[in-house]
């Protein structure tokens, strides 16, 4: 349906600009690292960055209309995201645009809006080893991903993660301190598909890893729309409309 | 945990006050009919009405704190419900209060908030026969409910109903014109339980039926909280907290 | 992963050989009609028939090993299917082969084996109109399928259909007599994907319809394996195996 | 519906009779430990043991007919369980009897039958700490259960656990070596409810713990039938049967 795949990677881009140690880890920004990595796996994809400081946060109506899958990374500046932009993104997701929410994006306004829950969780930042296990072998998002995928050091996220029970549970992580976390979750909402993937704290070079690029590339392919974008609408048609061509939709 | 069960039935109470033909059908209001019917099946329950025109729509913090299960009926006045009250109800649901959303309540602000989708659907009002089939025999909500439950005349709701895939699909309705509708749906959100049940248009005497009372009474029992009310919170505790009593929660 | 797609259409092929009126409806057999129709939509696919009367019912180990997706149509001769062949098919499905079970195949030994339930349902054969509604717009199986898909005359299947709650509910049918039926269901089992689709009684020319071919072609694409075929195995490896290459799998 | 609750605890009872070190750990058998513990929490329940060496493995038709919830512990002697008894138990579960499958019971014939998958998993027995986390706060099975529930030493079970995606994921365990396991799973099958709970290896005194008793008692209450026992049956009734009392079921 959509060839080539058009991916927009949104990043609040605050840590990288304000903290030299993060800038050193991500000299092209987290968005740049994601684009560099995923582009190698999806050479035909059209990948673009959008960031908070741009006009309309880089998410104009025109940009979203031409985006098949939107990646979302945010952390410190969730509240700086304009409500009208959140509305706009939600409309596009419900109309069929794919959305991949990353790490601390669990607390983004767009994710909370689409989930309807607090999206709260446990966390501590002690550089634990995170081991990401697949519980859905054969799922398109796990193809080519090592099982387990081992992150030698990462921030710890732990349950209870207050999200709706997912349509599909894809990954579960354990941390060396003993916590577990549902780290890969799929949701269908409206005509859109949402994937949440928890690895990716700004303090660790997660987005430079080939195995993580593989998950993100798979997620983009999985989340892309299969049909014309259209927001579900209330419909009032007369009895028998579906059998009478003169009154059919 | 909560004995006796405390149920608050919220109704916008507009049709009954403004349209004589509806007032004739529901002289005690839709809320009154629900309370009269469910009370017979749950004689120990404490049942109270709350309506839009009351201060805080009858949904003060104190009222919600003492409500185990909230029923919600609204139609014409969804936009008249104050956003702060919607926030308050959402917090209570995520903290464990049960919520039973009825019929046109699919477009209520509280339901859209908790679902994250448009909650749109097809409709037409032609007095079709609605036949409500159970697809979850043995589920507590279906116990004692005729299968099928036949409503000789009702408004037609049809798919696509834009809600998240439910945790459990309990009822599916057909209409004599050919439409189908997922008419009984359960959701867990936060610590709370939500049941959506579509029968109940104001133009038909649905809420005077014993079989409908049975569904509503079952839903109340099913949705009631099992644990202390508590909003899921972000938590940051040191490594190993769960093994060291001195730092445990 | 598998190009071109290799589809085997299994049919018990009893009605067509024993009943002239069915032979007239399906001169090439139900399997022939399915192959003729789907092949037009998937011109690159390699499509083969297999039938009950062939050695090993046409389902040798070699055939299954080279089958990406197996369609299954059976009705009168479920008990004539050899248990060893049922075992073999089950192993291939759990190892990743796709399976599309059609109509009265709900009572096939392979479907009951994989579901674990009785797979019983209501039925009556009165030539009702069946209206197949999508409840998963945007799902790959619904792309290009009319919503609703109307079958002017068909056998009636009704709830309660005793199958596990599906991973995804794709279609719901209504019948002019009032019954409803969950007519399109997806399941993941092992590494395999299963789709059950209820239209297709031998007395009606369902498999000559282009809209039905579209559903079947979509289902084949959806069900095809994404990874190397492998039966899930019990695994006993030493502590830390996933971090020590010398002991890794 | 069923008062008092009638629980039958089935145990193959082989380790306890053949290995003195297990007999020392479980002088009353694993079944005895479970009964002793759960009875304290459900003083009104009628609890009975049944074991492999009894006639019909202690699972006569009469016994099952009077059992609301059956617990199942097996490990070394799965193949010694008679196929006819497995059939009988399956029929009762699909008819509404609750089933709680414990630990190595994942490889029991009854569990494989009802799941339809291989039910294989990873394992190693190194005395790791197992930490059992709730991912369904408010679920009846988690009420009063510490979160996390910590088992200082236990056998390790790890993913991929080849079972159908559960209706509800209740618990996830981590092990000190890094593995994760979906350790508490619910399934509806036919009219019955099934709960799988992984803790409980014979080499560890798991079933002497009060927190484990709490899980088991909750599971029994959750799994008990709500309706008359009845196996789902194929049904063939004339058009309109549900509106004509003379032909209704």
Can you walk through the features of this model?
4 copies of one chain form a homotetramer. With 249 residues, the first copy, chain A, is of the alpha/beta class. The first copy, chain A, has a domain at 6-117 and 182-232: Class I glutamine amidotransferase (GATase) domain (Rossmann fold, 3-Layer(aba) Sandwich). In chain A, 25% of the residues lie in helices and 28% in strands. Chain A is built from 7 helices and 9 strands; from the N terminus they run βαααβαβαβαβββββα. In chain A, strands 2-1-3-4-9-8-7-5-6 form a 9-stranded mixed β-sheet. In chain A, a hairpin with a 2-residue loop joins strand 8 and strand 9 (192-197). The longest helix of chain A has 14 residues, at 210-223. Chain A starts with 5 loop residues before the first strand and ends in a 26-residue tail after the last helix. Chain A binds chain B through residues 90, 94, 113-118, 120-124, 126, 128, 156, 158, 160, 162, 164-165, 167, 177-178, 187-190, 231-240, 242-243, and chain B through 90, 94, 113-118, 120-124, 126, 128, 156, 158, 160, 162, 164-165, 167, 177-178, 187-190, 231-240, 242-243.
Main features:
globular; Rossmann fold; nine-stranded mixed β-sheet; 25% helix; 249 residues; alpha/beta; 7 helices; homotetramer
Assembly type of the chains comes to homotetramer
- Number of DSSP-assigned strands of chain A: 9
Total of helices of chain A: 7
**Helix share, percent of chain A:** 10-25%
Most extensive interface: A-B, 40 and 40 residues
What's the end-to-end separation of chain A, in Å? 22 Å
Strand order of the largest sheet of chain A: 2-1-3-4-9-8-7-5-6
Gross geometry of chain A = globular
The overall pLDDT average of chain A reads 96
- The run of helices and strands of chain A is EHHHEHEHEHEEEEEH
